[in-house]
Write a structure and sequence with these properties.
mainly beta, single chain
C-alpha cells in the first residue's frame, strides 16, 4: 500500500470552497460565522472491508480546520491515522492553500509528520520524527491531501475539465494531472441512486474521485487503482450545519 493512498483512504472527504464565481450555497457558507460538516467513510482493500474513517470540517469564513481519525488494517497490520489540517483562501491567487498540517500514523508506515507552508503555498518545511526537509514549487502550491481535495472540488464547480495539482508527501512532492470524466449513476446507501462526476488522477498515484452534485458536490467515493492492492472509500453518513 502506497503512502499516498494510505492518506487518501484514511482522510478523504471534501470541504467547502469559496471563490468569486462559485455557487450560492458556497458563498453562504463562506460568510456564515461558523459551520461544520461531518462525514463517515468505509474503507475497503481489494473488496474487503478493512476500516472506517471519521472526518470533521470546521469552517469560519474563508478558513477551515479539518480533523480526521481512522482505523484500518493495512496488509494485516492494524493502523491508526490522525490528521489536523489548517487551510485558507488566498486572495492573491484565488485558490485554497494549506497553512499547516500535523499527521500521526501508527502501525503501517508509522510516522509523526508536521508540515508548515509559506510563500503562498510554494514552499514547505517538513518535520518527520525530528528529521527536517524543505521543498518548493515554482508555480503550483504544495498541498496536503485535504486541501488537494478541496481544490479539485473548486475546479469542478468552475467547470474545469483538466488541471494540475501537487501534493506534499512525506518524502517528496507528487505532481498530478486530473481529468473530469462523463457523469455516471450509482446506488449508494442510504441515499439510493446518485449521479456521480468522476475525476481521474494520474501521476505518482492513480485515483478516481466521485462527486455528487445533488449532495453539494461532496465526495462520495474515491478509488485507488493499485497494481497489487485496489482500495476504495465510500461515504456512509453525512451531516452539515453549513447552509
Amino acid at each position: 500500500m502506497n503512502t499516498c493512498f494510505l492518506g487518501l483512504a484514511l482522510t478523504l472527504a471534501l470541504a467547502n470552497n469559496v471563490f468569486a464565481s462559485q455557487s450560492k450555497t458556497d458563498l453562504q457558507a463562506a460568510v456564515k460565522e461558523q459551520c461544520s460538516r461531518s462525514s463517515n467513510y468505509d474503507i475497503y482493500l481489494s473488496g474487503i472491508h478493512t476500516g472506517t474513517m471519521a472526518r470533521t470540517e470546521t469552517w469560519t469564513g474563508k478558513t477551515a480546520v479539518v480533523t480526521s481519525k481512522s482505523e484500518a488494517s493495512i496488509l494485516g497490520i492494524g493502523t491508526q491515522y490522525q490528521q489536523r489540517a489548517e487551510l485558507s483562501w488566498s486572495n492573491k491567487t484565488n485558490e485554497w492553500i494549506t497553512d499547516k498540517f500535523h499527521q500521526k500514523v501508527t502501525g503501517f508506515r508509522a510516522r509523526d509528520m508536521q508540515v508548515s507552508f509559506s510563500h503562498n503555498g510554494r514552499q514547505s518545511r517538513v518535520n518527520i520524527d525530528g528529521d527536517i526537509s524543505n521543498y518548493s514549487s515554482a508555480h503550483i502550491p504544495l498541498r496536503d491531501v485535504d486541501t488537494l481535495a478541496i481544490q479539485i472540488r473548486q475546479y469542478l464547480l468552475q467547470g474545469r475539465t483538466q488541471f494540475a495539482l501537487i501534493r506534499q508527501a512525506s518524502d517528496a512532492i507528487e505532481p498530478y494531472q486530473l481529468y473530469v470524466q462523463a457523469p455516471q449513476t450509482a446506488n449508494i446507501a442510504p441515499w439510493g441512486e446518485l449521479t456521480l462526476i468522476p475525476v481521474k488522477q494520474s501521476g505518482a498515484e492513480e485515483v478516481t474521485y466521485y462527486f455528487a452534485p445533488a449532495m453539494d458536490y461532496q465526495l462520495i467515493r474515491a478509488r485507488y487503482h493499485g497494481i497489487i492492492l485496489r482500495g476504495l472509500i465510500e461515504l456512509n453518513h453525512y451531516s452539515s450545519s453549513c447552509e
